[in-house]
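Ops channel
N.P.: pipeline sanity check, posting one input/output pair.
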């Protein structure tokens, strides 16, 4: 339950098996992921650009302080989950930005998941090498 006096805006993002709970508040642009600075948590420039995508698209790079709790999956999946959660927060806080974020695909859930392993196979589709003789 979110109180009317709550200064934070919440959003949830998912990607593969990663789940991110994002909280934003008017501020100076600090981003904290699992208690660390974003540059310390995400290793590559591509992951940082993925997370910053919604902020750049809505030109609100320095307007919010952002806190993220993310778990599950790998680093790229977590970056995608944070991006979606952040985009949802921005839409809740400023509804006119929805058109821009939806056009860029930041509000669309990527439904691709790992295919399950089948019996008799090594992985989902990898079978033993066929021997003719």
């Amino acid at each position: 339950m979110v109180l009317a006096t709550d200064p934070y805006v919440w959003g949830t993002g998912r990607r593969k098996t990663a789940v991110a709970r994002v909280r934003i508040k008017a501020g100076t642009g600090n981003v904290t992921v699992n208690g660390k600075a974003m540059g310390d948590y995400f290793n590559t420039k591509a992951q940082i650009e993925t997370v910053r995508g919604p902020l750049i698209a809505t030109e609100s790079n320095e307007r919010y302080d952002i806190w993220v709790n993310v778990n599950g999956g790998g680093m790229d999946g977590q970056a995608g989950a944070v991006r979606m959660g952040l985009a949802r927060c921005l839409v809740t806080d400023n509804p006119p930005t929805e058109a821009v974020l939806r056009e860029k695909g930041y509000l669309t859930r990527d439904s691709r998941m790992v295919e399950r392993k089948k019996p008799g196979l090594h992985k989902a589709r990898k079978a033993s090498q066929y021997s003719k003789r």
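N.P.: looks fine end to end. The longest strand covers residues 18-26.
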